[in-house]
């Protein structure tokens, strides 16, 4: 993350939780937080700061900031994808074919009515489309996370073993021990 973005985030936190930070410890707190959070990408840090401000009553610990950064990066990604959609609506328009950096963005647009509908949406209704897009993007991200282990073979060892045996053309009845059943 850039030092500038970090300072902006810390100022937001300090302004949101003014009782926590004493003037004499402000610089030390910033130095400690910077040393522990500097590897976090800017967008993720911004997201974590916003979530901390919305969710907490006290200044967040470093651990809490890290937890918020991991909480739902799909939202930050969805906002980036939405910005790309809006840019394409203005640049490509109704008759053009949008090109998105993330293939999931195209799938999400199709799932909420498609490109023509996106382009035909009145400016006053774009907020509704935005919410639908973000909700659909999260759903696609969850589905992707659920399916990924199946595609990479990172499933329960018992299932992997059965698949290997069936795939090898040598089906075999599992013993109780292989099934994990102890009598």
Descriptors for this entry?
183 residues, mainly alpha, 69% helix, flat
Précis, in short:
The protein is mainly alpha-helical and 183 residues long. The chain is 69% helix and 0% strand.
Q: How many DSSP E strands?
A: 0
Helix-strand category: mainly alpha
How many domains? The number is 2
Mean pLDDT: 82
Helical content class: 55-70%
Radius of gyration (CA) equals 24 Å
Structure, explained:
- The protein is mostly helical and 183 residues long.
- The chain has 2 domains: 3-71; 75-152, no CATH class.
- The chain is built from 10 helices and no strands.
- It has helices spanning 3-16, 26-37, 42-55, 62-71, 73-91, 103-111, 115-120, 126-152, 157-167, 176-179.
- The longest helix is centred in the last third of the chain and has 27 residues, at 126-152.
- The chain is flat, with a radius of gyration of 24 Å.
- The mean pLDDT is 82.
List the helices and strands and how they pair.
Elements: H1 3-16, H2 26-37, H3 42-55, H4 62-71, H5 73-91, H6 103-111, H7 115-120, H8 126-152, H9 157-167, H10 176-179
Helix pairs in contact: 1-3, 3-4, 5-8, 6-8
């Amino acid at each position: 993350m850039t030092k500038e973005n970090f300072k902006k985030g810390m100022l937001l936190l300090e302004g949101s939780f003014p009782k926590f930070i004493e003037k004499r410890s402000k610089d030390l707190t910033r130095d400690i937080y910077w040393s522990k959070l500097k590897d976090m990408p800017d967008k993720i840090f911004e997201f974590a700061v916003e979530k901390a401000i919305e969710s907490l009553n006290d200044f967040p610990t470093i651990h809490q900031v890290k937890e918020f950064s991991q909480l739902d990066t799909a939202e930050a990604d969805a906002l980036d994808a939405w910005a790309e959609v809006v840019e394409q609506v203005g640049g490509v328009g109704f008759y053009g074919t949008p090109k998105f950096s993330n293939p999931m963005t195209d799938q999400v647009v199709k799932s909420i009515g498609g490109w023509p509908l996106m382009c035909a949406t009145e400016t006053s209704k774009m907020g509704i489309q935005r919410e639908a897009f973000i909700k659909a993007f999260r759903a696609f991200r969850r589905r992707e996370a659920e399916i990924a282990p199946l595609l990479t073979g990172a499933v329960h060892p018992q299932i992997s073993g059965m698949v290997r045996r069936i795939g090898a053309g040598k089906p075999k009845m599992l013993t109780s021990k292989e099934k994990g059943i102890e009598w």
